[in-house]
Model the fold of this input.
Amino acid sequence: MAHLDTHESASVLRTARHQARRTGYVQHAQLMLLAAGLAAFGIVAVAAAMMSTLL
Done:
């Protein structure tokens, strides 16, 4: 298990936590963009299937 000496490296820990939090936000945003892209692709695919049955 890791031993973190918080007396000497408080700013390093603060920076690491901030960077981890930011990375989590970026991953969440990327996941939401992926979900939106898949949803848009599904809508376009359904619309194309509907149009092909009409013609």
In short: The CA atoms of residues 45 and 54 lie 14 Å apart. The longest helix spans residues 10-54.
